[in-house]
Amino acid sequence: MINFDLNMILSLAAAGLGFCALLAAIIMSFSVRRWRARCLAVETTLAAMRREIEVLASISLRTGRRVKRIEHEYSGVADRVELVELRGAAASFDEAIDSARRGTDSGRLTQQFGLSRVEADLVTRLHGRRKTA
């Protein structure tokens, strides 16, 4: 059997420990490379997502402006529909025509029958009394 002295045992232990440390360093190096690649991929994905969010925000802003413009343009429609529903369409026009034939002016037709200014003017022109000079 071989006689091992203390120096030999310590040398073998140091060599084994050095080998293990080298092996751990190599494994850590590969692990760090994988994590760097993964971080780079995540950063690239985040940049792409940031660009997409900016595009969506721009689209949302334009859509909001369009909605406000449409709401503004058609804000009177609900009031107009309510007036039409209140006046009972055909009967109001018939009564307005009769009233125009009796000489009622367009302003009074608007007030009395809920006609719009344009409708009252039209009824007056078509059915009102002819003015003679």
Q: How far is the N terminus from the C terminus? A: 147 Å
Helix proportion: over 70%
- Beta-strand segment tally: 0
Taking pLDDT < 50 over at least 5 consecutive residues as the criterion, the unreliable ranges are none
Structural class: mainly alpha
Instruction: Give, in order, the helices and strands.
Output: HHHHH
What form results from the Cα inertia axes? rod-shaped
Rg calc: 45 Å
Task: Supply the number of helical segments.
Answer: 5
Describe the structure concisely.
With 133 residues, this protein is mostly helical.
Write the layout of secondary structure elements.
Elements: H1 6-73, H2 77-87, H3 89-101, H4 106-113, H5 117-127
Helix pairs in contact: 3-4, 3-5, 4-5
Report on this model:
The protein has helices at 6-73, 77-87, 89-101, 106-113, 117-127. By secondary structure, the chain is mainly alpha-helical. The chain has a domain at 77-127. It is rod-shaped, with a radius of gyration of 45 Å. The mean pLDDT is 87.
